[in-house]
Amino acid sequence: MDFQPHVMSQANASETNNNAWTIGRLINWTNQYLTENGSESARLDTEILLAKVLGCERIMLYTRFDEDPGDQVRATFRNLVKERAAGCPVAYLVGHKEFFSLKFKVTKDTLIPRPDTEEAVQAILDLAKSKQADTSTIADIGTGSGILAITLAKELQHSQFVASDISEAALSVAQENAHFHDVADRIQFRSGDLCNPLEGETFDVIVSNPPYVSDNELAQCSPDVKDYEPLQALVSGPTGMEIYQRLIPEAKPLLNPSGWLVLETSPMLASGLKQLLEEYGYQSVNIKRDHTGNPRIVLGQV
Known about the structure:
Layout: H1 10-14, H2 23-36, H3 42-54, H4 71-86, H5 90-94, E1 96-99, E2 102-105, H6 118-129, E3 137-141, H7 147-155, E4 160-165, H8 168-180, E5 187-191, E6 203-208, E7 213-214, H9 215-220, H10 223-226, H11 231-234, E8 235-237, H12 242-251, E9 255-264, H13 270-279, E10 283-289, E11 295-301
Parallel strand pairs: 3-4, 3-6, 4-5, 6-9, 7-8
Antiparallel strand pairs: 1-2, 9-11, 10-11
């Protein structure tokens, strides 16, 4: 179906007030169009894009169904919908994504935050609440848009952070997000590969959501992932374990006594990652499951 919401048949026109393309009609039409173009969340995609163009919260659309948004809004909306139908993720089209109930700027230089990653935040908050971990100093390796360091800074008001990334462009986005959430004064942003920016310092917790997609897995990823998100932040190598094999030994001497390394991973890699932590002498190694029940977070203590 060609996306032309300004074209109506006479029969369709008679079903609308004043023959107008109202917000309600736009939503219904676009939902069908995106569904037919492969979106698994077509209704949500539609509402997010339309709310972006209208400059309102998504929930407000439901009070404006009979409103005619006008030609300019429809034209802008139509262009965004065409990009979404071609595969571009909604988060890149609107420029932000929610994580842990916080709004984060994202660009094509950063991964789009996933709900699974919230489990890494929760794991650290649980360690702090149970007094199993001191959380005075925390390092976030491969920070991307800054979601882990910034969310933890919002939750742990007395902690100090270092957030590093090999991508200068990603760090720039993370810094913007830190200022937006008013935690920039407690986060140092540093450029470099894995633990290199942390050399000479020690931390109570090191957390990371590193690249763990294997080369073969990438080929099976949906186009909105493999064609749009930064491969440097996604792909580890032939097995998916390559970054962990470097990070785990590098991190150990940078952890304070009884400090914790907290890692996000793929459900397929969790057991192997647990074994790797144990081989390097980490204690109390544990696997935590995500909201869908899949093993997602592997953590160990020095």
